[in-house]
Amino acid sequence: MSTFLFSDIIFGPVKSRRFGVSLGINLLPCDRKLCSFNCIYCECGWTTKNSSKTGNGWVDALTVETMLEERLQEMKLRDELPDTITFAGNGEPTLHPQFLPIMKATIALRGKYAPDAVVAVLSNASTAHRPDVFEALMLADSHVMKLDTGTEETYKQINQPASATPFAKILSNLMLFNGDLTIQTMFLKGNHDGHVVDNTTEKEINRWLDYLIQIKPQLVMIYSIARDTPAGDLGIVEKEQLNIIARQVEKAGIKAEVF
Ligand code: SF4
């Protein structure tokens, strides 16, 4: 399958329904994916080093700051400032060893050039218990955290986490936000490694809803596969079914949107 990597540190802007005009920051190496998960649907392909340890190829904080400032200057001159500055890219952005200073610089540059822009982080929540990471996340305006299931078994099957990240750790990390977060959930069906994968069953949805009620997110973003996946035998969940799931979330008193 044809997955892809972001080849730039500052990328876009891209227009997205979720984030409007979004200028992306990719803190991961441009030539490979680095993540504490190895999701079977990841649009960046398989994680080659399934570890949350730091690797080679990190861009330094000053370079990120300089490149972001140059891009924001250009965008300001053209009067095309972004709605969102989004930390995303080739893996898990919070793994960058200088995530906190980079976040501080980003917040300062946002204030200088694009005060109306929202600073957002897309994360799998595996590092949120680290004080430096949590401090950085709290500086951002929008914390979009992944929760694809309510069961340990399906978490291991879909997200294929590094061994040091049990499901209970993800749940306790999500609770740290005290409701100041958005949950994003990918729904899919198919087969992987000789086993059926389906996080839309009644049991799955009920357990996932139970955790959502405890986590109390401001919003749940629901979506299905839109691009090629590294696992070859996965299929999308139709919009109609995603809408039914969204209504169940709303019924639990939590806002939900289908993308
Ligand atoms: S957490 Fe995100 S970047 Fe990491 S493997 Fe999953 S989809 Fe890919």
Number of strands: 10
Bound molecules: iron/sulfur cluster
Q: Alpha-carbon distance between the termini?
A: 23 Å
Average predicted local confidence, pLDDT: 94
Total helical elements: 7
What is the strand and helix layout of this fold?
Blueprint: E1 10-16, E2 20-26, H1 61-77, E3 84-88, H2 99-113, E4 118-123, H3 131-139, E5 142-146, H4 152-159, H5 167-175, E6 182-192, E7 195-198, H6 202-215, E8 219-224, E9 234-236, H7 239-251, E10 256-258
Parallel strand pairs: 2-3, 3-4, 4-5, 5-6, 6-8, 8-10
Antiparallel strand pairs: 1-2, 6-7, 6-9
The structure holds iron/sulfur cluster.
Structure description:
With 259 residues, the chain is of the alpha/beta class. The chain has a single domain (10-258), classed as Aldolase class I (TIM Barrel, Alpha-Beta Barrel), CATH 3.20.20.70. It is built from seven helices and ten strands. Strands 1, 2, 3, 4, 5, 6, 7, 8, 9 and 10 form a ten-stranded mixed sheet that branches. The longest helix has 17 residues, at 61-77. The two termini are 23 Å apart. The protein binds iron/sulfur cluster. Iron/sulfur cluster binds at residues 35, 37-39, 42, 44, 47, 91-92, 124, 146.
Task: Summarize the structure in short.
The protein is an alpha/beta fold and 259 residues long. It has helices at residues 61-77, 99-113, 131-139, 152-159, 167-175, 202-215, 239-251; strands at 10-16, 20-26, 84-88, 118-123, 142-146, 182-192, 195-198, 219-224, 234-236, 256-258.
